[in-house]
Design goal:
Layout: H1 10-23, H2 33-41, H3 52-62, E1 66-69, H4 76-84, E2 87-90, H5 108-115, H6 122-137, H7 142-157, E3 160-163, E4 166-169, H8 172-175, H9 178-186, E5 191-194, H10 197-201, E6 213-217, H11 221-225, H12 227-241
Parallel strand pairs: 1-2, 3-6, 5-6
Antiparallel strand pairs: 3-4
Helix pairs in contact: 4-6, 6-7, 7-12
This protein binds fe (ii) ion.
The site of fe (ii) ion has 7 residues, from helix 5 and helix 8.
Length: 242
C-alpha cells in the first residue's frame, strides 16, 4: 500500500490543521523535549498533511526507520515483523471533523503525529525493534503477547518521563489526545509508578478510558537498556504458566 496524497480532501487538511493547532500550544512544558525536537526533525506543520515520502527521507537521515502504510490495525505477527525491520505501521486516513475527539481505531493523526517524532530517537527505536524481536519469538503464545502488549502500552503509547524540568509525556497515545495530556501529568487520580518491567507485565490496561496508572522512565536509555531484563522476566513468566 502507498499513501495516495491526491486523495486527501479539504476536510482532511482541515482535520489535520485543527488537531495540530489544538494540541501544539499545550505541548511545550508537557511533551518531552525530544518529541518537540522530533516534530522539527520530521518537519510537521499545521498546514500540510505529512507526505510519507518526505517523512521517510527525513527519518532515514536520523534513524533509518520508515513508515509502512497499513489499512488500520493489523495482526500481531505483521505488526512486530514490521517493527523488527525498522518499519513503523501507519494508516493514511484521517478521522472526520465530526469525530475529532473519539476514535474506534487509531487514524493517521495518532499514528503519525503521535509516534513519528520519536522515531528520530535512537533509544526509543532500538527499544521498539528489540521488543519486537522478543515478541516474534513468542508470537504463537497469546499469554506472552498479552504481557508484551502491556509494556508497549505503558511505554510507547502511555509513557511518562522524568526530566530536569519535571514530569513530561513521551507516549503517543497521550500526545495525540487533547484531554489526556493535562490529566496524565496533573490529575491526582491516576497512580504514577517508577518504570519497572515486572510491575508493568503484571498490569493490565484499558483502552476505552484515561489510564488509571502510568509508569515513569528516568531517560530514554532506560528503555533500550531494559531489553535483557524484559526477555528474562517474560521467559520466567511464560515458563511458570506452562
Ligand atoms: Fe499508537
Amino acid at each position: 500500500m502507498v499513501q495516495d496524497y491526491s486523495k486527501y480532501t479539504p476536510e482532511d487538511f482541515k482535520v489535520w490543521k485543527l488537531l495540530y493547532e489544538r494540541l501544539m500550544p499545550h505541548l511545550p512544558g508537557a511533551a518531552v523535549p525530544e518529541y518537540l525536537e522530533g516534530i522539527r526533525r520530521v518537519n510537521f506543520v499545521a498546514d500540510r498533511i505529512p507526505n510519507f515520502d518526505e517523512t521517510n527521507r527525513l527519518l532515514a537521515s536520523w534513524t533509518g526507520w520508515e513508515l509502512e502504510v497499513v489499512p488500520g490495525l493489523i495482526p500481531d505477527k505483521d505488526f512486530f515483523e514490521l517493527l523488527a525491520n525498522k518499519r513503523f505501521p501507519a494508516s493514511t486516513w484521517l478521522r472526520k471533523l465530526s469525530e475529532l475527539d473519539y476514535l474506534e481505531e487509531p487514524d493517521m493523526f495518532h499514528d503519525v503525529f503521535g509516534h513519528v517524532p520519536l522515531l528520530t530517537n535512537e533509544h526509543l527505536v532500538s527499544y521498539l525493534q528489540e521488543l519486537s524481536k522478543i515478541a516474534l519469538r513468542h508470537i504463537d503464545d497469546p499469554y506472552a503477547i498479552e504481557l508484551l502488549s502491556r509494556i508497549y502500552w505503558f511505554t510507547v503509547e502511555f509513557g511518562l518521563i522524568q526530566t530536569h524540568d519535571g514530569l513530561r509525556i513521551y507516549g503517543a497515545g497521550i500526545l495525540s489526545s487533547k484531554g489526556e495530556t493535562w490529566y496524565s501529568l496533573n490529575d491526582p487520580k491516576p497512580a504514577r509508578h517508577p518504570f519497572d518491567v515486572t510491575h508493568i507485565l503484571d498490569t493490565p490496561f484499558r483502552k476505552d478510558e484515561y489510564q488509571k496508572e502510568y509508569f515513569i522512565i528516568e531517560g530514554f536509555d532506560q528503555l533500550s537498556a531494559c531489553i535483557p531484563e524484559l526477555d528474562r522476566v517474560l521467559n520466567e513468566k511464560v515458563s511458570a504458566k506452562d
